[in-house]
Design goal:
alpha+beta, three-stranded antiparallel sheet, single chain, about 30% helix, SH3 type barrels, 3 helices, 6 strands
C-alpha cells in the first residue's frame, strides 16, 4: 500500500469516528411539547412588531397580503411567485403582450393580441393566459398556476399606433 493510500484511509477512519461520536452522543428524543417551531416563533414576532408599528395603510395592506400568501416552501413561485406578473418582461420568463384593438363581428368580439385574434375564453398561444374580458381600452387575461392553483390576472392596455389612426373630416355642403 502506498503512502497516499494510507493517508486517505486514515482520514476516512477519522471521519467515521467523528461521525459516530456525533450521531450517538446527540440527544435524539422527541421535541418538548412546549417548544415552538423556529419559523412559527419568528412569524409571531414579525406579526407582533407589525401590529405595534405605525404603518401607513398602503404598507399595512401589502404586509397583510404577503402574510396571507406566505408559504413554507422556499422554492415556491420561481420568478415572481407573489406578484401579478406586471412589469416582468425583462425577467426572462414573462411574455410581453400587445393589445392592438378589437374586432366586432355580429355579437362576437375578438381581441387582437400580438397580431392574433382571440375571443372570450380562448387561450393565448404564449404564457398560458385565457382571455377573460375584452374592452375597447384593455383586455383582462387570467392564468392558473398548475401546482398551487393560484390565479394570476393581468390587464393589458390598448396600444395605439399614430400611423394607424383613421382621419375623418367633415365637409359641409354649401
Amino acid at each position: 500500500m502506498e503512502k497516499r493510500e494510507k493517508i486517505m484511509l486514515g482520514a476516512l477512519a477519522a471521519t467515521l469516528v467523528v461521525a459516530g461520536v456525533l450521531q450517538f452522543s446527540s440527544p435524539g428524543g422527541p421535541p418538548l411539547p412546549g417548544a415552538a417551531a423556529p419559523s412559527a416563533l419568528n412569524m409571531d414576532e414579525v406579526l407582533r412588531s407589525v401590529e405595534q408599528a405605525k404603518l401607513p395603510p398602503a404598507r399595512a395592506y401589502r404586509l397583510s397580503l404577503l402574510a396571507d400568501n406566505a408559504t413554507g416552501d422556499p422554492f415556491y413561485g420561481g420568478q415572481g411567485g407573489l406578484s401579478q406578473d406586471e412589469g416582468q418582461a425583462g425577467q426572462g420568463g414573462a411574455v410581453e403582450f400587445v393589445y392592438s384593438g378589437y374586432i366586432k363581428i355580429g355579437p362576437k368580439i375578438f381581441a387582437v393580441i400580438n397580431g392574433v385574434e382571440y375571443a372570450h375564453g380562448d387561450e393565448l398561444a404564449e404564457g398560458g393566459y385565457v382571455v377573460q374580458a375584452i374592452d375597447k381600452n384593455s383586455v383582462l387575461l387570467e392564468r392558473t398556476d398548475g401546482p398551487s392553483g393560484r390565479k394570476f390576472t393581468r390587464r393589458v392596455l390598448l396600444v395605439e399606433d399614430a400611423t394607424d389612426k383613421i382621419r375623418i373630416r367633415v365637409v359641409k355642403k354649401r
